[in-house]
Design a protein that fits this description.
- This protein is of the alpha/beta class and 467 residues long.
- 49% of the residues lie in helices and 8% in strands.
- It folds into two domains: 14-46 and 151-463, Metal-dependent hydrolases (TIM Barrel), CATH 3.20.20; 47-139, uronate isomerase, domain 2, chain A.
- The chain contains 20 helices and ten strands.
- The model has no long low-confidence stretch (mean pLDDT 97).
């Protein structure tokens, strides 16, 4: 029997252990998509206690606590930080089989040197140990990033953001990690969402351009892409909860745009046309600047209306969507490909039913001499589990070129989330190790170690123009 989460955790055979310890373990991280706050990085934010750094804003944990019967008072309510921590400690032992169980203990081990199990009995002592460390030097936001051997952090930023903290980090020149913005224009595409008209006014101000037409709108977005590029931005990201495509003319979209700016809703067909042409235009801009385009598809958000009105979005009430993906996605990509304007693209779906669909669609658009130009993105959100990662990687291996996979991203608001990369790398090594043990690939450790290092770091380093 193995010890709990020992040095060979998740490494199920000797080949896996050699691949991880000799090749994967020390590789740097390129965090090409996360939700860390650049202001907190710039200020090197410190934390008064473990609840602040661990539980504030973490809807993964909130969701689990509710499912364990914890009252909302101890989740997002007015209970003390200590009582919230105790509630999380009460929940953790119930989470066996859930990656949160492993992530929790990896974070305690890697950042604070604590190897005890977290439960109601150990919680008071762990609270004291961690808080004592947090109130010493070397436990700020920047420190957590540097201790994790991160080379690049790509944040998620709205086109209207002025990126002041990205600029200040660059001007300061003291942080060893490159922090670059990621272009997230969701509000500019959601023509039927409340607040669209007000957002266009904000976009006008950010771009310093009057927006009286759809062409003006396109030019404003172009202006912001160019601004992000000047600050180091090389990545866009789109939350496409429902994949849409419809043939459209500029005249049709112009009419819908003006209607929406006037504060009116447009038909579903007109929404599809607006999104199609706008994504086409943005894709052209991304290709022009050598950016990578990311689509996060099939999330079903804010399902609990009462709690949405109480707490707002991103508070643990989302789920997998099951909308159509294949036809609208393929048509949208083909629309860009026809004019040779398809940028490097990463596709993720929150519903694992789409795994084979996405893995096969990307194969239809590979090319231009770029290894893995089209990427099947790593297992995302509810799929960010041992089983989910294995399913995503096995599907990619079955249908595509697994060795060109750009690997893991953090997709988190927490500075303690970087051990998820270790979790991922251990699973990669175990998967490849199982192929060796089964005689499915040669036992060439040097060759396989190179592939492990590519997936861990080098493929992403080559794929993104962050240098």
């Amino acid at each position: 029997m193995r010890n709990f989460m020992d040095s060979d955790f998740l490494l199920e055979n000797e080949t896996a252990r050699k691949l991880y310890h000799d090749y994967a373990k020390e590789m740097p991280i390129i965090d090409y998509h996360c939700h860390l706050d650049p202001k907190e990085i710039y200020e090197n934010k410190t934390y008064k206690n473990i609840t602040e750094v661990w539980l504030y804003g973490d809807h993964y944990k909130w969701r689990a606590m509710r499912a364990n019967g914890i009252e909302e008072k101890y989740v997002t309510g007015d209970a003390s930080d200590y009582d919230k921590f105790l509630s999380w400690a009460k929940t953790v032992p119930m989470l066996i089989g859930n990656p949160l169980y492993h992530w929790t203990h990896l974070e305690l081990q890697r950042f604070f040197g604590i190897h005890e199990e977290l439960n109601e009995t150990t919680a008071p002592e762990i609270w004291e140990k961690v808080n004592k460390l947090l109130n010493t030097d070397g436990f700020g936001a920047r420190d957590f990033i540097e201790k994790s051997n991160v080379k690049v952090v790509c944040t998620t930023d709205d086109p209207i953001d002025n990126l002041e903290f990205h600029k200040q980090l660059t001007d300061e020149g003291e942080f060893s990690v490159k922090v670059v913005p990621g272009f997230r224009p969701d509000k500019a595409l959601e023509i039927n969402r409340d607040g669209f008209s007000a957002y266009i006014k904000q976009l006008e101000q950010a771009a310093n351009k009057t927006i009286d037409s759809y062409e003006d709108f396109q030019n404003a977005l172009k202006n912001r892409v160019e601004y992000f590029h000047s600050i180091g931005g090389r990545v866009s990201d789109h939350a496409i909860d429902t994949m849409m495509y419809a043939k459209a003319t500029i005249e049709e979209v112009e009419e819908s745009f003006k209607k929406a700016v006037a504060g009116n809703k447009v038909s579903l067909d007109d929404e599809k046309k607006f999104k199609t042409l706008t994504l086409k235009y943005l894709g052209e801009q991304y290709a022009k600047h050598g950016w990578v385009m990311q689509f996060h598809i099939n999330a079903l958000r804010n399902n609990n209306t009462r709690m949405f009105h109480t707490l707002g979005p991103d508070t643990g009430y989302d789920a997998m969507n099951d909308g159509e993906v294949a036809k609208p996605l393929a048509k949208l990509l083909d629309m860009l490909e026809k004019d040779n304007h398809l940028p490097k693209t990463i596709l993720y779906s929150l519903n694992p039913k789409d795994n084979s669909t996405i893995a096969s669609i990307i194969g239809s658009f590979q090319g231009d001499g770029i290894p893995g130009k089209m990427q099947f993105g790593t297992a995302w959100w509810f799929n960010d589990t041992k089983a989910g990662m294995l399913a995503q990687m096995q599907t990619l291996a079955d249908i595509g070129v697994f060795s060109q996979f750009i690997g893991m991203l953090t997709d988190s608001r927490s500075f303690l989330s970087y051990p998820r990369h270790e979790y991922f790398r251990r699973i990669v090594c175990s998967l490849i190790g199982s192929w060796v043990e089964n005689g499915e690939v040669p036992n060439n450790i040097e060759f396989l170690g190179d592939i492990v290092q590519r997936i861990s770091y080098y493929n992403a380093k080559s794929y993104f123009d962050f240098e």
